[in-house]
Amino acid sequence: MLTNAAISSKYSEPTGRVQHRPSHVLLLHDYPGIIRAWHRHLEGQNDHFVCPQGRIKVGVYDDRDDSPTQGELNTFVIGEHNQKLIHIPGDCWHGFKAIGDKPALLINYPTELYDYENPDEERIPYDTDKIPLDWEEPPHE
Known about the structure:
By secondary structure, the protein is mostly beta strands. It has strands at residues 6-9, 26-30, 35-40, 47-53, 55-61, 73-79, 84-88, 93-99, 104-108, 122-123. It is built from no helices and ten strands. The strands form two sheets. The protein has a five-stranded antiparallel beta sheet with strand order 1-7-4-9-2, with no helix packed on it. Strands 6-5-8-3-10 form a five-stranded antiparallel beta sheet, with no helix packed on it. Mean pLDDT is 87; it is low at 9-13.
């Protein structure tokens, strides 16, 4: 499992305390099959995903040179059937796909405000060969 990537129940951190204060809230509504991937944040932003409606498959890939988990890929399935909060280290590539037969609602609590003039985002296509995730592969729940 990636260092610092965590999945927690009941919308709390493993300690029961909020360890990263959210700067704002993003609400995303996606129909089944929609993929939003891949991106990362190199200036310190961490993301926190919750899916209260529908289901999503989340991918987190670590390609950090100095990381003991370099090259590891984690996938998580969360949603109304499996209410969890996923803490995503911002400097790891991450993305998600809405799965199932109804729209998914994703709530993201990032730790940094979005800077429109100098966004902390690097993006690559969802189907890149750089990350070994097949979005069409059935999720492991």
